[in-house]
Request: fold
Amino acid sequence: MKKILVFDYGGTIVTDESDEVLHKKFYEKFIEMFGIPASTEEMFLFLRNEINEILKTSHERWENLSTQYAKAVKKFLETKEIQARDHHLKTFRELYLDFHERYTEPFPYAVDSLIKFKSMGFRLAIISNIDNEIIEPVLRRLGILGIFDVIVTSEEMGFGKPNPEIFKEALKRLNVKPDEVIFIGDSLINDVEGARRMGLDVVHFGVECKDWKELYEVLIDRGI
Reply:
């Protein structure tokens, strides 16, 4: 019987859709505050492309996302012939953190399921390509920060999934062997392939189970 469940965060516990919505919300506010001659969608697509390029090498080197977004915002403003000032970047960072904390939404039944798993005696952990300044306030708002025995982020490690070292670190902190763990994540490369290379049993969230209601049955079949 496996009693350790390790989860991805974005796209598994919280939805990618809410992340897109919150970004567009605060881009709209940023544009309005500074009178930038651009649409919300234009800014969203520009910054998404810039950050996606950075994330291609995040398994080798992770840089704080709010810092990377600030660099991308500076480039975006330059395309509008606006020189980025300290107040632009300070305001953007404040909005970035505030809107993530307030508007990141969990999948239906995710919070209740995690609390249920904890009450059943499972040890819970997270391995995520994210910054602590983002994940911790959200989990605290959702009332589940304290139920995780271990949270390992790419920010603290300096690199992200699928780098095997981030999985090794989680196993080390949990003081368990790979065959004692089931990992649940939505990304084929970062989660499924990364965890399997470390010898973990994996549930491909969104593929092997379409939602959190189905997850419990899938885990039963895996021998929890």
User: Anything to note?
Assistant: The chain has ten helices and five strands. The mean pLDDT is 95. The domain at 17-103 is CATH 1.10.150 (DNA polymerase; domain 1).
